[in-house]
Amino acid sequence: FKTQNGYAFPWFIVMYLCGGYVRRYYPASQRKGTLLLGYLLLVFGHLLWVQLTEAVIPGMGLSGLFMKYTSLPVFGSALCLLQIFRSVRFSSNNCWIRLAQKLSPLVFAVYLIHDHPLVRASCIQGKLANAGQLSWVGGLSLVIGVVLGIFMLCIFLEWLRSLLFKALGVDKAVEKLCGRITEKIANLLKGNL
Length: 193
Fold this sequence. Notes:
This protein is mainly alpha-helical and 193 residues long. Helix content is 72%, strand content 0%. It has 7 helices and no strands. The protein has helices at 9-25, 32-56, 72-86, 95-114, 117-124, 136-168, 170-190. Helix 2 runs antiparallel to helix 3 (72-86) and helix 4 packs across helix 6 (136-168). The longest helix is centred in the last third of the chain and has 33 residues, at 136-168. It is globular and about 65 Å long.
């Protein structure tokens, strides 16, 4: 299937299923050091690949071979980070921690919305071209204002979507469907179709 560099719906399904599989079948790891080492090896291995391919065979486009969300090094490093941060626990007494707990489910939508190629091309790309014409204070203020505006707009859109899904019962229907699919997969793995 076409992944469109990580923005296609089928790829989001693959990521969701892999994340769900890891969550269900791999308990939160106490081996954070090993996972961190794996993450760093993947990241530095990628940087080394870029440097070597550009030095040895420049202009071939090989340096960007793994610079996609669908590449194994990027996907593997994401799984390492998922496992590392799964076991982190915070006290919910702090107001900043409570705010982060409320916002964190919404933040993934910021990535999905603002970095989608259609949104990026039509709403974001080139919009800050004049920031270089401003003083450094004006340019910095403009960039920070745009970033905060994008963040707040995407959070608001995701909040509206979650309210709509809850009102229409989509969340419960998806949970039910996921339960059925999980049951079918478990039966398939056991050979009890």
